[in-house]
Amino acid sequence: VTEPRTYESAVARIEVIIRRLDSGEAGLRETLDLVKEGRELVEYCAGELEAVSTGLQELRLDELVARLESAGSPS
Amino acid sequence: VHPAQPVPGTAAPPAHGSTLPGPFAVGAYAAQLKARLQQFAGVQLIGEVWGVRSGRARVYFELRDSRGALPCSMWQNDFDALGVELRDGLRVVVGGGCDYYPGSSTSSPSFSFAVTELRPAGAGDLLAQLERLRRRLGDEGLFDIQKQLPRPVLPKTIGVVTGEQGKARDDVLAGLRRRGWAGRLVWAFAPVQDRHAAGRIAAALRELAAVPEVEVVIVARGGGSLADLFAFCDEALCRTVALLRVPVIASVGHHTDRTLIDDVAAVSCSTPTHAAEAAVRLDCRTARSELTGHAQRLRLHGHRAILVRARTLGHLARAPSQQVERQRRQLHQLLRELRASARRGVEQGRARAAKDLLVLQRTADRSRTAEREKRRRDLARLALALAAHDPERTLARGYALVEDGSGEPVSSAPAARTAGDLKVRFHDGAVAARVGEAEPA
User: Fold this and answer.
1) Is the Cβ pair B291, A38 closer than 8 Å?
2) ipTM of the complex
């Protein structure tokens, strides 16, 4: 069972990848695979950071609940 | 309660099908119930007053807390003597015991806790009550559940339960700003200190947790007296927090206060600002900069991996011709060395021959010298032998040599006569002589 991806798990994996690449022990195929995986993780993290950088959005719970209820109602 | 004897005159045949004793007269049963309840030991109770009303001789109210309630009554005279003004929500300590009014054929029965003592609860009472509850909740393991929940370092949606007017609201915003966080914030405003607070806060928490996007909830309230903060020690609220699906970060009162919600929450913070920082554990600006660094390193490694390998491949492609060139250079070198070696051999041969020649010459010289010596010695010997025949040596012995005018020896008398003038040579000189007429006799 794969753990759901989180920002911290992604960053931890990126750091492992960079350590492996820095060691110079990875062959060409492994290096290219690691770089590809690392770039995907960086993109994911950048997306997560972007989501909390667009500007503070403040909602009131009662308004949110009302909105969710109206969205969920069949009419 | 079991009457010792059936009430006389009320005995009846056993009810059909029932195995229970009786039936007994209800009044007798009620009287015995009253007697039995009055045997309960007198105790003190703590709770909130609710629904105070005065009867003809008694004051009635309920004593409540989150787990239950008890109807109480106190003689009006005793109550008046206390001089306490009861109002809904007042936390009081009452002393007394159980009582039961059995009623009659014309009045309703009622149960009540007969209060003989009453005082508003002090801090000590509250703390003692708090400790008992804390122990009980701790024993049930409710303090650990929240702490085991995974807590995202970078939540995108945060729920906040706080008072709408309080300073805590601004503090939470300040903490989030400090982290550089600007995601979605869901405010759930609730009263944070009156007697309705606990229930409203619990309801707000449940509603926030029902929003799937909410990843963490902050419960924040500024400082206050223990009585003010008591809403956050409510048992039902604490149980709600303990079982919530999202982690709760509590910041209630000052850092010296310790409410029960601090114990059950995933994290307890001293200020709402810290609670906000605990909700977003990542400094977003630093994270952005670190991520840029990671991206650059990955790009560098990708680039280097291709470039270095390309160089190696290029090198390998050039290798055969370089190998031939290398072999050719080695061959030339060997050739040069061979020639040099040959030259050195000739030179050495020549030097050796010259040396041999010199040796030969010296040997020959030495031979020639020996020959010369030998000849010299032979010559000396011959000279000696010759000297033995030298006329001079004969002259020395007294002989004389006669020579004619031209120096030719005159070896006979006739020759002497013919010559006329003669030279007579002795060993030490010569004298002239003339042949005379007379002949010696």
Assistant:
1) no
2) 0.84
CB contact under 8 A, A31 and B305: yes
Angle at alpha carbon of residue B279, lines to B273 and B281, rounded to 5°: 100
A42 in B contact zone (CB under 8 Å):
yes
- Interchain CB distance below 8 Å, A8 and B287: no
Mutate to test the interface with B, among A58, A64, A68 (most CBs of B within 10 A): A64
The whole-angstrom distance between B305's CA and the closest CA on chain A is 6
CB contact (8 A) between residue B152 and residue A7: yes
Contact indicator for B208, B239 with CB cutoff of 8 Å: no
Among candidates A6, A42, A52 on the partner chain, residue whose Cβ is nearest the Cβ of B183: A52
* Sequential pLDDT tens for chain B (441 residues): 455 455 454 555 555 678 998 889 999 999 999 999 999 989 999 998 989 999 889 999 999 987 889 999 999 999 988 888 888 888 899 999 999 999 999 999 999 999 999 998 887 777 888 888 899 999 999 999 999 999 999 999 999 999 888 788 999 999 999 999 999 999 999 888 776 788 999 999 999 999 999 999 999 988 777 777 888 888 999 999 999 999 999 998 776 667 899 999 999 998 999 999 999 999 999 999 999 999 999 999 888 888 877 887 888 887 777 888 888 899 899 989 989 988 888 899 889 989 999 998 998 888 888 888 888 888 888 878 877 777 777 788 788 888 888 888 888 888 888 888 898 888 888 898 888 876 655
- Distances in whole angstroms, Cα of residue B37 to Cα of each of B23, B109, B111, B419: 21, 14, 9, 216
Q: With helix as H, strand as E and coil as C, how does B139-171 read?
A: HCCHHHHHHHCCCCCCCCEEEEEECCCCCHHHH
